[in-house]
């Protein structure tokens, strides 16, 4: 076959490009880099991770070890898959691993000025301080107790209307999404946060699009010259549309709060919502503007979006997984129901006063978070300097992924690691915010500087919802269907149950 000189030259150029693109950099003399499984030319291991990367990375760690170096497109990425590695990332060398890589979707959707996705720096420190001291303190979380209890009662009412007398299946997934959206809407925007029934449905759709986009991995993040693929797939247009709608909503909310503050300043600090509190911080920053980071409207909007993403997606995902696991484990369901019903006694509903008595319920939630970690790879970190991880050299500006899902299923540290066994947590001190950073075998909320500050907000919301559903109803799979629920996963901002959870709710009364 004749080959033209131009074709031959093109072939040589292409082979040379592939060779240099896939060639490993030297290990800086004596410094030992982590083992690096080979990937594809130019794209590295990016297209080989599959639809459920946490499972693929777990299988790779079993072969290559608890610390690996992968090239995802042009991005060197270190993967930590053991409790010891997680402890070094989130405690021993926490500061070195404390930054975040830039993400195109986060920059577009949360202004590049939020707390969860922001790189380490003064803005991030100020944002976290505001969240910890003003929004997510124990006192502030307690102030939303009435909202949580009202939303739980409303959810129970919706179950009764959807399945009168236990006839017909209930869409449990939709009910739990509505519950979590209701709580965070009221916490962020006030009791008017739902904007009426129609507004609530539109808000739910808007935030569903927002969370879907925020969990989308774009080509441009890893292979900049392929960013045009994101535009071709419609991601850029959808992100621009969603961002504009969200920004308009938040502008209206902030303007409305400012108007109400001018009309009559609220006297009862305990009942103020997140926007009220952040406007106070904003006013205080204006008065003391000599240096420091200004906490302006963009920062307020970014933190509101952070709280929505964290408090809705992961909370509802965990609650759906908990109900699914209990359906497949009727003995455990009966045990937790007996505990709840004994604690409530002759009462007509579960309140937060009952929660401290529900030790087995807490075990169920912890076991769900272990077995079905909602953010299995947490949020990626980025090293700010050259550092070490289990004796391996990790260069500055490396992306770092902690596979919390693999760590929570490690058979070397967990007995019956693949099974749902709530009793494994029975001996724990269940008052310690779910061991945030105390046990690195179990890090569903991360740890260290980049650990989730909203654990204290999420936990009572999960406990109250699950206790309410299990107290008022006996739950079954629909008749004529499978005898066991399929537990297939769907990847997104969090990893959720793939199928819609449809269950029959049979009313129970003392």
TrEMBL record:
It comes from the Eukaryota. Keywords: Heme, Iron, Metal-binding, Monooxygenase, Oxidoreductase, Signal. Heme binds at residue 452. Its cofactor is heme. The keyword Lipid biosynthesis does not apply. InterPro entries: Cyt_P450, Cyt_P450_CS, Cyt_P450_E_grp-I, Cyt_P450_sf. Belongs to the cytochrome P450 family. This is Cytochrome P450 71A1. The lineage of its organism: Eukaryota, Viridiplantae, Streptophyta, Embryophyta, Tracheophyta.
């Amino acid at each position: 076959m004749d080959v033209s000189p131009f074709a031959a030259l093109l072939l040589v150029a292409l082979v040379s490009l592939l060779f240099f693109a896939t060639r490993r950099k030297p290990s800086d003399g004596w410094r030992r880099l982590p083992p690096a499984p080979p990937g594809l030319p130019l794209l590295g291991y990016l297209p080989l991770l599959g639809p459920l990367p946490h499972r693929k990375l777990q299988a790779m760690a079993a072969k290559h070890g608890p610390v690996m170096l992968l090239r995802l497109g042009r991005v060197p990425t270190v993967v930590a898959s053991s409790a010891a590695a997680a402890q070094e990332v989130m405690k021993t060398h926490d500061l070195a691993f404390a930054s975040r890589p830039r993400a195109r979707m986060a920059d577009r959707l949360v202004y590049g000025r939020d707390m969860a996705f922001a790189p380490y720096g003064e803005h991030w420190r100020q944002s976290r301080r505001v969240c910890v001291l003003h929004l997510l303190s124990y006192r502030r979380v307690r102030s939303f107790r009435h909202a949580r209890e009202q939303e739980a009662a409303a959810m129970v009412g919706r179950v009764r209307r959807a399945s009168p007398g236990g006839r017909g299946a209930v869409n449990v997934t939709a009910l739990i999404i509505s519950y979590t959206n209701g709580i965070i809407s009221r916490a962020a925007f006030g009791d008017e946060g739902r904007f009426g029934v129609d507004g609530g449905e539109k808000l739910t759709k808007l935030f569903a699009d927002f969370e879907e986009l925020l969990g989308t991995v774009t080509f441009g993040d890893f292979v900049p010259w392929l960013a045009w693929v994101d535009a071709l797939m419609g991601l850029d247009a959808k992100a621009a549309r969603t961002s504009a709608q969200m920004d308009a909503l938040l502008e209206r909310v902030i303007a409305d709060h400012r108007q109400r503050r001018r009309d009559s300043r609220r006297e009862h600090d305990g009942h103020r919502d997140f926007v009220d509190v952040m406007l106070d911080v904003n006013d205080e920053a204006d008065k003391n503007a000599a240096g420091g980071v200004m906490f302006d409207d963009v920062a307020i909007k970014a933190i509101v979006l952070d709280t929505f993403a964290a408090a809705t997606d992961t909370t509802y995902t965990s609650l759906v997984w908990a109900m699914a696991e209990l359906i497949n484990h009727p003995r455990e369901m009966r045990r937790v129901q007996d505990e709840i019903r004994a604690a409530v006694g002759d009462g007509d509903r579960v309140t937060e006063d009952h929660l401290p008595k529900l030790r087995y319920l807490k075990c169920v939630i912890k076991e769900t978070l272990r077995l079905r970690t909602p953010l299995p790879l947490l949020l990626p970190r980025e090293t700010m300097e050259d550092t070490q991880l289990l004796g391996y050299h990790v260069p500055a500006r490396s992306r770092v992924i902690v596979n919390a899902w693999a760590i929570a299923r490690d058979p070397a540290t967990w007995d019956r690691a693949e099974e749902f066994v709530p009793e494994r947590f029975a001996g724990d001190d269940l008052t310690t915010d779910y061991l945030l950073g105390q046990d690195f075998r179990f890090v569903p909320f991360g740890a260290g500087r980049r650990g989730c500050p909203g654990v204290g907000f999420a936990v009572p919301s999960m406990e109250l919802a699950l206790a309410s559903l299990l107290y008022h109803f006996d739950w079954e799979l629909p008749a004529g269907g499978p005898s066991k629920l399929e537990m297939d996963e769907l990847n997104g901002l969090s990893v959720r149950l793939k199928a819609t959870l449809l269950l029959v709710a049979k009313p129970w009364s003392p």
